[in-house]
Amino acid sequence: MKKKAVLADRKNANNIADLISYMEAAKPKILFLCISSLQDIFEKFLVTNEMMVEHSSKCSNNEKTYKLWLVEKYKKFCHSLVDFLQHDEKNIVNMSLLTLSNFFKLEQEYFASDSPCQAVWPNVVQKLLDNSSDIQSMLFPVSFIFEEYSARHIFLTSFLESIHAKLPQQMSNTFLNNAFCCLEMVSTEINKVLVSEQEQLSESTHKEKKLLSSCWLEFLKHQLPMNLYKRVLVIIPDKVIPCLTNPLKLSDFLTHSYSRGGVISLLALSGIFILIDKHNLNYPEFYPKLYSLMNPSIFHTKYRARFFYNLDLFLSSTHLPAYMTSAFIKKLSKISLHAPPHGLMSCVPLIYNLINRHKTCRILIDRTEQQRFTTDPYDPNEKDLSKCNAIESSLWELKTLQQHYSPAVAQKCQKIDHLRNSQIPIAELLETSADDMFGRELEYGQKIKDTPINLFRPQGILNNQDNKFSFWCME
Q: Which residues does the UniProt record annotate as the domain CCAAT-binding factor (predicted)?
């Protein structure tokens, strides 16, 4: 009722003061209603320039006093919303952040100077970073605010000040998670700006990239919890590297991650390769380390599809030496003997494509001279790719897999005997799971009306010629 009265007639403006006073000791439900009512009131006033003193130079003193009073109440409401960002009730926190974001966007269009909401925005950033819970779900509804250059600039400046002010022991896991969520959202928006300004970046975009680079580099100096470490490595290739003024400054972080082994090394692959391929990073240990990551456990990791996709990309150059590509092909064949069927659905086509792409490696499946081996000359424990003797070996593993119990796998392996010039598209095979293969077998089984269950059709329950039943006494 009070909201409707204020919007209907400015004579009821004192209701604004009443609504603000109600918020001080209100229960969550009443507080939510007060915030919603005041949001509608001040949004209407912003759009209609009700609080713009500059537009009323010819107005009476009473009019100016009224407008200044409105601005004062608006500022008080904004400060209250900042305090509510650490409220116990999540819906109050979300509503306060959404209201502040809406005010910020409207002020860009309708408020001339001394924007009250912009003035409290550094405090908003501080409250978000210090929030005791993960703010990712809170930021999603207000992602539109980061479309504004001024919002991004204020945020990044405040973020840098906040992270500089904290000692390493004061960096809780929650703080680091919140910092990452904010940086990821800002990076996403700046990437959109970079795409739109591909030909020539504006001066403001250059400054923004420099500021964002400082934020990311400062953030990555801290020890990250394992889950956050993985999330950072996942977004670095697409969201972080394009936004940095000098991506090579990430080389220490990525090479250290690459040398850790396990899943962390898998996730660091893409970032390292981009620095090598596009930014001239000199890292001679890239391929030996990649080779060492190939073991049977790779088929059981969450990032199996990502690894095989990257492996296909990294070995796409036809300028790689034959000993290196043959070592990778042979190692893939070796570990495929321990792979589950759904892992073979992407591994075997990758081997096929590598042999097709690197013609010198066809000797692994098509030797003209006859040789007898008592043991495989390939040494899987040799770390030096040039000394593992892969090119002296053969892909007998694939010949073995042609007798695999899964018809789909056996069929894939038989293609090695009939190489063509075309490549097998493996992108659609990377995410193949055991459930997918089982579902296809069920579909195939439904098409077969009569399923053979015996080699010869039986002529009754017992066969007289079967000596197995000679001990029975039939009456």
A: 265-411
